[in-house]
Give the backbone structure.
Amino acid sequence: MRSFLSATVVSCALVLAACGSGGGGAVEDEVNADGKVILEVAMDAGLEQNAVDAFEARVAQFEKAHPDVDVRPQEYTWTAATFTSQLAGGTIPDVFTVPFTDGRGLIERGQIADVSTLVAKLPYAKSFNPNVARAGQAIDGKQWAVPIAAYAQALHYNRTLFTQAGLDPDDPPSTWAEVRSAARQITARTGQAGYAQMTTDNTGGWILATADYAYGGRLEILKGDKATATIDTDQMADVLTLVRSMRWDDGSMGANFLYDWAGINQDFAAGRIGMYVSGGGNYGNLVTQNALKPADYGVTVLPLADDRDAGVLGGGTLAVVSPKTGEKTRAAAVQWIDFFYLGKLTDKAAAVLNAKTQAESGQPVGTPDLPVLDRATWDAQQKWIAQYVNVPVDQLKPYTSRMFDQPLLPEPARSTQDVYKILDNVVQTVLTDRNADIPSLLADAQSQAQALLDRG
């Protein structure tokens, strides 16, 4: 697809040539009976048939442009519970995705391929948002992993439940006090959970961190190589006090206190939840995997406390390449990342083709994702695809009109998922034990987190 790749493939023509693998040894490329390089690529698990059809259409387009590559989709969805075993067992495809929080660790342990030379030659390599790109960089700044999607947390809400509860869906809550009030009203008038929160599979810690940031707190402070846990703070205590009040005093959080990401999406799409917090660009997943009715959907920016340090937790997704790939496969992998994930953001023809393909297969076009590239690139891309946008744009405006105004803060950098797991237990306890001792819970979580950070 890009001219720079042809030169790379030529220089790596010998299957066992060691041209910068970074993996400690050459690996043989796998080829099919026709001599084409086999490239296994991740496809989200659980997609509806029209989404699968759209994915396969993109594969066909890629193979037409790259007749020497045999692309083989493989169902894959990152989860904290299964990823480590999948990685160790070699059951992950050649190109797969991981959250920003996993990037640096995978690089340092050599568990992904060093494709930085290929990535550096992409025509838009210098246009990455530096705050976003950092998640996929090695200590020396080389881009081993490619940011393909970024997000800022947002407050998702059900417009239909808002209307039924006598609330204005065009004027969603802008403070946490308003969130509490709206949740109480939704439950009282509809019988549904006014507000729900994720608590399992590390998502409980993720959402607690989000609220902590929104109140002006942080989970850790880095000073040089030293990481200090900062969980036991007034801000985190305020967050948990709010959760406890909504659960036990208001009764507005429903009856399910063991939600993971998939489960809360399912119940929200089914109209059983009035509000919840997740990534701002979650509309696409809700529609394609949970049959959300577009008319029900609303999203707004995350409420921030009146604190100068308050901000919105952000993260995203990195596309990475397995170290168990040969040089031709790695070249093909970067071509696929360029074509499938980033071409639609940087090239007008690719953007239009991708939007057209998605629209024709009933997929959402125009979801409010934060750009991984600069604002000028994003603005241009939005104009290219305007005729194919099929999402309820006006219903997204409470978010899209202000998403660039909020300070975006990165997730904690050290032992992120392990610290989130510790906090899962904290929020579960508060939601299931009316007499939970918040100060003791936070002191214990602080001690456990610091022990993890001290181990490195």
DSSP finds 18 helices and ten strands in the chain.
